[in-house]
Amino acid sequence: MNFTMSFSELMPLAPVMIVALTAIVVMLLIAIKRNHNLSATASVVGLNLALLYILFAMFGGAFAPSNVMGMFMVDPFSMLYQLVIVVAALACCTLSHAYIENYTDNREELYILMLCSVAGAMLMVASSHYASFFISLELMSIPVYGLLAYTHQRSRSLEAGIKYLVLSATASAMLLMGMAYIYAYTGSLSFYDNVQALMQAIQQPMVILGLGLIICAVAFKLSLAPFHKWTPDVYAGAPAPIATFLATVAKVATIGLFVRYLLSSGAILVDSIVTIITIIAVLSILVGNFLAVRQVNLKRILGYSSIAHFGYLLIGLISMTYASLGNVTVYVITYVLTTIGAFGVVALMSSPYNNDNEAESLADYRGLFWRRPILTATLTVMMLSLAGIPLTAGFIGKFLVIMAAVTTQHWFLAAMIIVGSGIGLYYYLRVMVVMYMTPPDTPRIDADKHWGQKVGGLMVLAAALAVLVIGVYPDPIIKLALQAEILSPLHFMLSQQ
Prior knowledge:
Elements: H1 7-10, H2 14-32, H3 36-59, E1 66-68, E2 72-74, H4 76-99, H5 109-124, H6 130-148, H7 155-186, H8 194-201, H9 205-221, H10 230-237, H11 240-265, H12 271-293, H13 298-318, H14 326-350, H15 368-371, H16 373-387, H17 393-407, H18 411-435, H19 455-472, H20 475-483, H21 489-496
Antiparallel strand pairs: 1-2
């Protein structure tokens, strides 16, 4: 492999470099003088520059897909997913600012960790090589350990960080083992070079085991059943903006990488692998929905609901044989917007930071409508979207996934989505009912009086508006998702069928 390269060859990765440079700038600013507002502003400016660059590359008309060093494939698919990651990261940055305002310890390092993790996430969706797959995944995961345990005075936050560290390390070990098995039989680490070699070696039990281990490691990162045990504890213990980060940025990056991997390595054509993914999808829908019914903690409810949502998404992925990749992408976009809104409301209710706990119990939201009507309306829209009620973005995503399952005649899987959504409706409605009850005399915890004037509040309101607009007029998003095609011979073959 030739590692000599010019700057122009690296240009397709410019958004990632902008985010990495922003992390260095924030580091230098902290070294010069600690100023929370300055660090937060620099982070947001850097992310906005990366966002503008991606938008310019996507809509400027001069974009040409390119393969960087044989390790990263920058194509329309990776661009769109990078766009979603940067938008989600902006939301998390702005929510963190208000949340951590009153924190007594150092506040500025939070942004460095977040930017490093975003850079890893953006590299993940472009990875087309096992080495870049592993390195970018670790670059995204390692800062998250620090982010989860950032408010370490709260024992639960520290517990969340350690729990994620131990289990994530286990998943990484599984991933490495799986890659080693595949490399041993195919002799190549690139996804694209691997297709023929993989198809020839697929009879070998070790290759199947290797693919299985990679899927299990990815299932852990996406918190799919039966690897979901960490999710509710980590979500409940993590600071609210970081739980948002984990539920959006980390998940989008992993699913983007997984989709690319399945399509470009040819693993989606292996029947036993499709069976494993189907079992994981069905289990995730059942486990996520049934366990959410029993919860009284809003963060835990959202944690379990995300398990179910990624179960639905996997069904869209299995059914991609004939239907387009666009269905999965639309679902990812609607899920991210809705999750930003739902967790954003929890973050706004919990801010400013206090040492004891956050607004996470359903009792904290009782009668919220009578105190904070706009905030309640926002959370109501998000709950309806998560439940997949028409006129919200969630309905569009879910409808397209059901359509993909029906098109490919996966009747059982289509029925599972409908059953799962029915169970989900119960606990989403329960959250909504609590908010419209008669309020307690003195609320234990409440949102800031001027929450809507802060950047985080504006971000949440923008997410709520986007959810409603996409629900009524989904055409632009569907069009955008259909254009975001993966450059892989296999995907081209499947889309022609």
